[in-house]
Amino acid sequence: MTDLTRRTVLAAAPAAVTAGAAVSIEAAAASPLQLLEFPTPESHVCAFIKILASLEDATVFHMYKGTMEALLPGRAPVKLVDSTTVIRRQVEVKPDGHHISIWEATVYHRPGHIEPLESFENPLNGRMVRPFHQREGRGHSLWTNEGSKFRRADGTWVSSNRTGKPYALEWTQAGERIWTSRYNAGVYVKHPLDPENWPLEFAGPDLLYSEKTTSNGLVRELADPSIVNASATYSLNQTMLWWPWLLMGQTPGFLVWNTNGVKLSSADALAVADRKLIEKIHPTIFDSGAPWEGHVNLWTDYPKMREPVPA
C-alpha cells in the first residue's frame, strides 16, 4: 500500500499492451468457454485494465455497497454500519503508458436507508459517535508493459512489483466469467494522531491492515480485442484497526469491511437515490473536472475537521 491510496489502479502502455493481449487471446474470442491464457506480462496488464478501467482515455466509475463489522476477543462479530462508495478513475494514455488518477468517496448509513448517518450509539462502548464519511485521492498510477508504478507524495515513482519476477496475475475461469484477486497486508501508515491529545481516536502506533480485492469480468469481453472497457464486478474485503470516529482507543479488536459492487457504464447508470446519497457529502465527485486537488484521505481530513473527544 502506498501513501497515496489503498486502491490505486490501473493502466498499461497503449499499443504494445493492447496488441500483446489481442495476440494471446484472439483465438478465444469465438468461444466464451475456451480457457483464456495470458502468456506475457502485457497480456495480463491488458486484461486487468479492461475489467478495472479502460485501455483508452476515459472516466470510469465503480459503485459498491458494504457492511462494516467489529470483532473483539471473546465476542461475536457486531455489525456497525452500512456503506456506499463511488470510485472515479481518470485514464490518460500517454507515450510512457497509461496514467490513472483515482478518487474515492464513501458515505455511511443505516441498512436500507438513503440518508447519511449523522450519529449512533457505538454498541461496543456505549458512546455516541459521528461517522466520518471519508474521501480519498488523488492517487496516481502508471502502467506499462511490465506492470505498475505508483507516485509517492514527493513525486517519485515506485514499482508495485517487488517479486523480481515478470508481472503476472492469478486468473480463475468458470463458465462465462473470469476473475482475479489481489492481496495486500502490512502497515498502511504510522498513526498520525497524537495519543496524548487524541486518546479515544488513537488505535495504536501502526495502522495495520489486510485486504483482498477481486475483479470479475466476462470471458467473451476479455477475449475480444475490440473491447477496451469491459464490464465487471468488484469486491473488497478488508480488516483494519479502529476508525478514529468510533472512539475505541486501543481496545483490542479490529474492523472488517466487506463490500461488493459493479463497474458503471457511466455516472448516469448510478441509481438516483445512491447518487443523491453520495452528493450530499461529496458533491464534487461527479464534476467534469478533478473532484478535488492534492491528496487527501481520512487521516489527513479528520484532524482538520474534528476535535478530540474527551476520554
Question: How is this structure best described in words?
Answer:
- With 311 residues, this protein is an alpha+beta fold.
- The protein has one domain (14-305).
- It is built from five helices and 13 strands.
- It has helices spanning 14-25, 41-52, 219-223, 272-281, 298-305; strands spanning 58-71, 78-94, 97-109, 120-121, 128-129, 135-144, 147-151, 157-159, 171-174, 177-190, 206-218, 232-240, 254-263.
- An eleven-stranded antiparallel sheet has the order 8-7-6-3-2-1-13-12-11-10-9.
- Helix 1 (14-25) packs across helix 2.
- The protein starts with 13 loop residues before the first helix and ends in a 6-residue tail after the last helix.
Architecture blueprint of SSEs:
Elements: H1 14-25, H2 41-52, E1 58-71, E2 78-94, E3 97-109, E4 120-121, E5 128-129, E6 135-144, E7 147-151, E8 157-159, E9 171-174, E10 177-190, E11 206-218, H3 219-223, E12 232-240, E13 254-263, H4 272-281, H5 298-305
Antiparallel strand pairs: 1-2, 1-13, 2-3, 3-6, 4-5, 6-7, 7-8, 9-10, 10-11, 11-12, 12-13
Helix pairs in contact: 1-2
